[in-house]
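Problem statement: downstream parser choked on a complex file, so we are re-checking the raw output for the adenosine-5'-triphosphate run. The parser issue turned out to be on our end (a line-ending mismatch), but while we're here, posting the original submission so the record is complete.
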Amino acid sequence: MNTENTPALEIVDATLELGDGDSRVRALDAVSLTVRAGEFVAIVGPSGSGKSSLLAVAGALSNPDSGSVRVHGTDLSTLSKGASAKFRLENIGFVFQSGNLLPALTAADQLRLAGRLAGNRKVDAESVLDSVGMAHRAKNRPGHLSGGERQRVGIARALVNAPSLLLVDEPTAALDRARSHEVVQLLADQAREQNVAVVMVTHDHDVLEHCDRVLEMVDGSLGAVRTA
Ligand SMILES: Nc1ncnc2c1ncn2[C@@H]1O[C@H](COP(=O)(O)OP(=O)(O)OP(=O)(O)O)[C@@H](O)[C@H]1O
């Protein structure tokens, strides 16, 4: 059911418990979230409220105990471990706190490797880097890039296989205020231009103006702070 109207992400009543015995916690408590293609959603909330757990179930990294998670119409619980890994590579992009780039590879090679891992040998690394304003740094390794530039390359790498869903974890944690705005504006631009759904977890309330919707996680429950 890969029609144009299918949401990029549809989580219904997801509950996830972590830990054992007395330390068992309900990281997700009947969480529902629908994100359309091209939409940019921010998730805020205190430490330990369940934000990373939400990204983990949305990214097919863990299965909820109950409820369902669909990415572009595919119910993630129906996938075997191998199929889940393949699905993740082809359909979901991840952006981490400080880019998480491989030190030995040039910016262009980071993208080519991500393409090859997903069976995509025809990656036009230069043009994807160009779309995030980094074509002029294609031959640089991460050690010769600024924090903001590393984050841009990380975003380009996450987009290289044209995912339906981009999951972004604290992208501005290592950046100053000006670079933070630039990187989150870039995510907003990419959501629109590539028609990709973006879910970003952040503690940085300063950058929320770039998002279409802001949701707050409290004790495993998700509520709206601002709607589009
Ligand atoms: N592997 C684990 N085993 C047991 N409990 C865990 C595990 N991972 C997380 N938790 C607990 O689950 C709850 C939700 O954690 P989660 O990491 O999703 O929160 P978070 O909002 O992302 O926090 P932060 O902002 O600090 O990263 C917390 O109470 C945490 O202590």
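For whoever reads this later: The radius of gyration is 17 Å.
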